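Reading is simple: the token line describes the chain's fold. The lines below illustrate.

. . .
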Amino acid sequence: MGEPKATLTLPGGDTFIGRITKELVAGGAAPVIAVVSGREEPHAAPVTIAGPPTVQYVINPEPDRGQTSSLQCGLAPVREAKAVLVTLVDVPLVTAGVVRALIQAWKRSGACVVRPTQAGRHGHPILIAQPVIRELLAADPSAPARSIIRRHAAGGVELEVAEDGPFLDVDTPEEYQRLIASLTVDR
């Protein structure tokens, strides 16, 4: 992208990390732990939400080890949690409604993985619970977390959602421009 995705802005002025944080908190998921690379300033993406601080920045000193290493950095402070929601900063259209639905599906089922789905596709955020959290923390940081998630998915819950946001991944400047255009079109 040429700049940190967390600081990209959306119509209305929110940054990706700011919008994601607001929606997670509004949906009942707090505190939010944001993992940043050692090359980024932890305060580069200010988030303003009324009330007590809701974002804890954790630095991944070696982000080149892979995405699992960042996940491990984020999970370390909450290793004993019963469940956590995990999302990516390049999936900025997370909504409080989907967050609430994922949490409720977990509370009803006790599943160790709850994922939003749409027409067979999996999106973010995903909810992971013990023992998945422990397994991810013990995994090789360079190995994909996806294999652990998939191993537990058969006993998990796939929550069908109508919203497109959990499946919209912004990785390139062109995708970012399309996102901005789609959000500013009068409907």
About this structure: Helices lie at 16-26, 67-75, 96-109, 132-138, 146-153, 173-184. DSSP finds six helices and seven strands in the chain. Strands lie at 32-37, 55-60, 83-86, 113-118, 121-122, 126-129, 157-160. Residues 41-46 have pLDDT under 50 and may be disordered.
